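Need tokens for this chain, all 189 residues.
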Amino acid sequence: MRYQITGKQIDIGEALQTHVKTELGTVVEKYAGRPTDAQVTFSKSAHEHVCEATVHLSTGLTATATGKATEIYAAFDAASEKLDKQLRRYKRRLKNHHQERSQPVEVSGAASYILAPEPEDSESDDLQPIIIAEMETRIPALSVGEAVMQMELAGAPVLVFKNEKGGGLNVVYRRDDGNVGWIDPTTVA
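Here are the structure tokens for all 189 residues:
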């Protein structure tokens, strides 16, 4: 597994990096046979240390967790516990659905942009948004059930995925009424 351990405005020592690799490796190996990579970012918010951890699995799942504590090791441990819980739920759901995947999930790359809102006092007729960040994102090829499961496990409000059956881009999202919505542009009513 590839690790990317970084600190925002703080130094990350060798001891912390070794601790992260050992503990995260143990958690991930317990539930997933083929993890691909992990990004762990440490930062400081007021008096608390914040640890943001993201693990990508070959099955297409992206598990993300954030931990906060006054000590940096405790912040990582909190994030690690949340990842452990997500991966345990994921493994349980896979067993319940009897859908062990024989092949890794195909992942396509795409551009992701963050747009700045237009100021309220702006009287410009130019409706072009200002791009403030551009990133690479991954679009997994999943079944609708797997997409819903991944969205719920990640705690995300929306997930864009390539439908394995139709091959087109689809979206699943959490509706205001608590149900899950599914947008399939290839289906015509």
